[in-house]
Amino acid sequence: MKRKYEMAVEKPQQMDNEHMLQLKNIYLAPYMQIATALIGKARFAGGNMFRHQLDTMSILIDYGYIDNILLKASCVHDTIEDIPGFDENLIRNADSDGPEVLELVKEVTKRPGQLKSEYLKSIIDNGSQRAKILKCADRISNMISLGFVTSNEFIERYCDETEYFILPIAVEVDFNMYQELISLVVSRREHLEKSGYFDRKEERDE
After folding, report:
1. DSSP code of 166?
2. Count of domains in the chain?
3. Of 3, 18, 154, 174, most Cβ neighbours within 10 A?
4. Which Gene3D superfamilies did the record assign (predicted)?
């Protein structure tokens, strides 16, 4: 039976003292150190994957998620997938939260040979609340980066994927993330329309 979650509907305007003190007690440095192994991994939109880990973490904080497991996992969420031969013990032994952080990272990691659609559908159907929230923050970061991508085919494919697979995840866990993702999809599709991409595609298909 599919699990039901209480959707977050409020987004803080800024961090209050209570959450500041919570964040102060979350030791992220061991996970940031692990993530620096991604500095050499370039992104299609520019920059590198290390920066993307921290960008995803900042989006979670922006949405008010001061959760030790979630923030630590966000720092290393692409390590298993993007670092060949990555040693999972680095996460498992990072600190006392390591085993739980590793479990969450593995939830949002696509297995070798697994279809992207199958992977995303598994998160829709079986993902924990934390996994779904982390995947939404990850996708917000990626959708913003589409503004620096020059391949219209890639932009269209990514928008389709977001609409089909990520919006159903977001609407289950965080209304404001859902709204931002819709806005990002609309803005990227507007870019495609203004560039004449859809008209050219229609002409090719005739």
Report:
1. I
2. 1
3. 174
4. Hypothetical protein af1432
**Beta pairing partners, 8:** 174
pTM (global) more than 0.85: yes
Contact call for residues 105 and 79 (beta carbons, < 8 A): yes
Residue 114 forms part of a structural domain: yes
Each residue of 24-48: pLDDT tens digit?
Answer: 999 999 999 999 999 999 998 889 9
**What is the extent of the structural domain holding 141?**
17-205
Computed over its alpha carbons, how large is the radius of gyration of the chain?
18
Residue 2 lies in a domain: no
3-state SS class at 174? strand
Q: CATH number for the domain including 39?
A: 1.10.3210.10
DSSP helix/strand/coil, 162 = helix
Q: Which two tokens stand for residue 22?
A: 């919570």
One-letter amino acid at 199 equals: D
Using the structure block, give the residue that is written with the tokens 């959760």. Answer: 67
Residues 107-134: pLDDT tens digits? 999 999 999 999 999 999 999 999 999 9
Tell whether 31 is covered by a domain: yes
Q: Is residue 9 part of a domain?
A: no
Residues 6+ apart with CB under 8 A from 193: none
